Amino acid sequence: MVLDTSACFALLQNEPGAEDVEAFLVEARESRLALHGSFVTLTELEYIITQEESAADAALALAKVKAWPVKWLHSDANLCSEAAKLKAAHRLSFADSFVAATAMRLGAVLVHKDPEFNAVSSEVKQRVLPPKGAAGAEPTT
User: Fold this and answer.
1) What string of H, E and C letters represents the secondary structure of the chain?
2) Which of 43, 56, 84, 99 has its CA 20 to 30 A from that of 90?
3) Domains, the chain, ordered by start
């Protein structure tokens, strides 16, 4: 599984879907599940939390996330090319094209709550978490 930024925020901010992300972390700690993330998720977490709260809060959140049992995939020429192809073919943000390319490279399920990923649903397996404000909503696959 690949955690999108929205999945990380779900847990960090106790949004709907937080319990699912926590369950994935427990499985990963017990070596029953491989969890991955894209470098761009770390970047998004840092700049969003810095803008909305403070640099100190961002540093604390990043320390927490980096302690999770997640393997972070960093960019290389092939990942850049795959992200560029996705960005050119679909209405995806720059960051989401890297997250989707990460999931594709790993053959992993992308865990998120971002409707923008609907554009690549035929190419990327997905586990969609409930959106903000969806109390009691069940995740879909």
Assistant:
1) CEECHHHHHHHHCCCCCHHHHHHHHHHHHCCCCCEEEEHHHHHHHHHHHHHHCCHHHHHHHHHHHHCCCEEEECCCHHHHHHHHHHHHHCCCCHHHHHHHHHHHHHCCCEEECCHHHHHHCCCCCEEECCCCCCCCCCCEC
2) 43
3) 2-128 (3.40.50.1010)
